[in-house]
Amino acid sequence: MTDISVSGFAREVGMSRANIRRLIDIGAIPRNSDGTIPLEEGLRAFENRKGGKKSAKPSSSDIRDKTAQAKLAKETYTAKLKELDYRHRKGELIEASDVAAEAQRVAGAVLDKLRSVAPRCAVICEGRPAREIESIIDDAINEALAELQTCKFK
Questions:
Q1: pTM to 2 decimals?
Q2: pLDDT at position 118, please?
């Protein structure tokens, strides 16, 4: 069995000595008591750890794959933006700020209608029994809601 120095092993597998020492420290690569590495065992351990690759550098096919993935992601994003722009121009989408403004306007109209119920009912309800007052208020609220249903909102 051949033994090799840390530097020699680093050259053999295409890594720095510091990286090989780290792998030795974590127990990923075996080391003899004299500081050398048993070559066959070390290579086997290194290849098992790296999935059979001897170099830490990415291969050109890995780079091409990552480039293709990045290009596909960019094209997908661009297509989605174009679809959103098309749907907006077509009138299928509304700006969130427009929706919020319209919701606030509608809420204001509902609030105004409901606030007007009490002053209108107060005069009518004076001196009447509770059941009759309840009916008057209920009718006034239903009338206000019916008016809101006929309103034309944007």
A1: 0.41
A2: 86
